[in-house]
What we know:
Layout: H1 3-12, H2 14-23, H3 26-42, H4 55-69, H5 73-86, H6 92-99, H7 102-114, H8 125-135, H9 139-154, H10 161-181, H11 185-199, H12 201-213, H13 215-236, E1 240-246, H14 249-259, E2 270-276, H15 283-297, E3 299-300, E4 306-307, E5 320-325, E6 331-338, H16 339-347, H17 365-375, H18 384-387, E7 396-400, E8 406-410, H19 415-422, H20 424-428, E9 430-435, E10 438-440, E11 452-456, H21 473-505, H22 511-522, H23 527-535, H24 541-553, E12 578-580, E13 589-591, E14 603-607, E15 613-617, H25 623-629, E16 634-639, E17 648-657, H26 662-673, E18 677-686, E19 689-698, H27 701-712, E20 717-723
Parallel strand pairs: 2-6, 12-16, 13-15
Antiparallel strand pairs: 1-2, 3-5, 4-5, 5-6, 7-8, 9-10, 9-11, 14-15, 14-16, 17-19, 17-20, 18-19
Helix pairs in contact: 2-4, 3-5, 4-5, 4-9, 5-7, 6-7, 7-9, 8-10, 9-10, 9-11, 10-11, 11-12, 12-14, 13-15, 21-23, 22-24, 22-27
Amino acid sequence: MENAEVTGIRERYRPLFELAEANFSARSVEMIGRALELAEEKLSGLTRYDGTPLLGHSVATAQIVIGEIGLGRNSTISTLLHDVVRMRMLSPEEAGRMFGDACVGILGGLCNISDVDPKISSEQADNFRELIVSYSTDPRVILIKLADRLEVMRSLSMFPPDKQKKKSWESLNLYAQIAHKLGLYTLKSELEDIALSFLEPEDYNYIHTRLEETARERNLFIAKFLEPIEAKLRQSGLKYHIKSRTKSIFSIWSKMRRMHIPFEEVYDIFALRIIIDCPPEQEKPLCWSVYSIVTDFYTPNPDRMRDWISIPKSNGYESLHTTVVTPDGHWVEIQIRSERMDAVAERGIAAHWRYKGVNQGGLGSEQWLGKLRELMESTDTNHIAERFDTKLASGEIFVFTPNGDLRKLPEGATVLDFAFDIHTNLGATCTGGRVNHRNVPIKEVLHNGDIVEVLTSKNQKPKADWLNFVTTSKARNKIRAYMREEQAKAANLGREELERKIKNWKLPVTMDDAVTVLCKYYKLRTGTELYGQIASEKIGLADVKEIIGKHLSGELTETRTRAPASTVKTAAKNPDALVIDETINHLEYKLAKCCNPIFGDEIFGFITVNAGITIHRTDCPNALRLQERYPYRVLPARWRSDTQQGAFRVSLKVVAEDATGIVNRITEVINRDLKLNIRSMNLSSAGGTLSGLVNVEVPGAGVVDTVIYSLMRIKGVQKVFRVNN
């Protein structure tokens, strides 16, 4: 750089260079000068809304970065080059070759955040905040972005009205909240106040005017209030100074709205800070000494006592708060803290950059921000990226819809997960997607910041293999629900087909007997399975006719074409098996309440310690556990073929529309049509839906499917299924 050019740049941007010279080495100042020269060359001729050079924004932001947040050389250089890289005039890698590798990550993160265009939606604010944090893989990125936003808000009057509203909403709901998490209270308050002045100008101007009108009266009251306290503090020999902090306009406005009170009833308009100068080891006892002095003169309110010295806030804030009342009834908030505590309260994590070398691993955004605040507390700004493991591994990603809506998904989520997250029908008909304008299959894994469009077809239907690659519980549940629904439809078709064929064949057999025979022959646990296999033609109707015919003629053998599906070995061929009959209630056998077995169910016995033998269904929820843990206590069991029928109770869960007369139709079907007894019925209504349990006395398991099928044919009945008790 020529001397004349150096002199010209220094004159044009004297405040920036004065800050740099006061905080950095001569070499760092020289590198900042070179970055500024490059930015001026690349951005030449580009202006802001008011006609001033675009570079002015970068320079003003760099001054905030150095002077108000306290970042170093690499952060300053990255701030100056941000717009150059964002506008694709320079790549982060090129900047890194010229000014050091540390700039590459910072510039990349800044550009990612700049590409985010938040929609004005309070429902999405949390997701956008987390997305912004997730892009800040270097902790300096989020701080530079806050400085950038603060400069924009300070210059907001130059923007068009629609931009003013949008940037004010973003500042209030996104950036001010992040600043709060980091303990940057001064920056947070300024963002909130400026945003309020554009979003609610009348309210802002009213509160601003009232604060000015009451300032003289307030100052006189404070001087009189502090007089005895200061006399005692001087007498004690403490080094201290006192600040009077007026509540921010936004805070006053929020309290007025939240509590529905006028300005005059906001009693904590100001707070007094007593700040003592002392070594760290004396901070706590001296703060409590000051508290004792204050309460010697004024009565404290114990409900308003806050000790954030013994246990600091999660964002690092330390202070002793109390609210006292004067003899004439005025309440005053007092904050007692050390110089160090005050620095942290004013400037948050940038007050001290002391690293502790902690590797926190994968964190969510809240923990990431908290750890960032905790670790970045020393004046050494040269190795921030190296000494802070900034991986944000919350297990979540954030992706956009084409119209800018933001969706949060687990890491590893696919296009199909995204489709189901938007809407069930969109997921059910998804055939693929377009990610960042590129066609991809439904299995494509998504990444942070992707823009995803779902492609659909009305002929597409969910498939069982989709369960192999979706990651969200919503997608899995919807796919399984669809598969169950399809199975139920197939079962109904199979049932109707079997019923029609038995009638056409004119065989002397009831539907219930036919189902019992076929289920036993094919080793199927329920009639529903049988109907599904008939519908899918896995079981042919010609075979069905032959099997029923052999049953009627007594020719049916015990041959089975399928292995049992139960978890416990069948007792059909075991001559030593327990034989369960109608005398069960008079012997040492009991039916297990966990699965409520009835005649026709595949069963086994289990020897208990104190209650004899309990009989369980082989598909009991406890069957596998009992067999694995106590195999020596499991006994084969079977029902006696001529067991007296009509002694078993089955519980059915019924879900139906809450329509007039539907309960009567349910009872008529069971009592009149099926000739079965209802032992109890407990149905309740909620949200237009009737649901509950119906306990029916049945002769055996074969009848249960008949009951379910008959109830499902009632108009308005949505679901019927057997429950364990």
